[in-house]
Specification:
The chain is of the alpha/beta class. It is 45% helix and 21% strand. The protein contains 5 helices and 5 strands. α2 packs parallel to α3. The protein is globular, with a radius of gyration of 13 Å.
């Protein structure tokens, strides 16, 4: 399902661009990018993604709360958590809360491929 629609949520523009390039190279369609929790909530309905790459730390939102929001509104969406902090407790809580996978930043194509394969994509 490499034609899946993906939304990238990260406050760092260079991270969104880097991940977007990796995803496009793998045949995915990036339908939206968001730099904040509010932007994510506004765009989620319009872009109707299959997959959301979600940064855990955002300037105006806690990624875990945003994960709950996404799971409640669009339970079919697969969420891949992303963060430079690999704090085990946070990652574990995210996976228990419905995230499909965790990817450590900085992004590399192999880790992104591994995450997508774990989704069955």
């Amino acid at each position: 399902m490499s034609n899946a629609k993906v939304m990238i949520v990260d406050d760092a523009l260079f991270m969104r661009k880097n991940l977007g390039t990796i995803l496009r190279d793998k045949g995915y369609t990036v339908v939206a990018e968001a730099a904040s929790g509010i932007e994510t909530m506004k765009k989620l309905h319009d872009c109707d993604p299959d997959i959301v790459f979600l940064d855990i730390i955002l300037p105006d939102a806690n990624g875990m709360q945003l994960l709950d929001f996404i799971r409640n509104i669009k339970p079919q969406v697969k969420v891949i958590l992303c963060s430079a902090i690999g704090q085990e407790a946070i990652v574990k809580k995210g996976l228990e809360s419905g995230a499909s996978f965790f990817v450590q930043k900085p992004f590399n194509p192999e880790k992104i491929a591994e995450a997508l394969e774990n989704l069955g994509e």
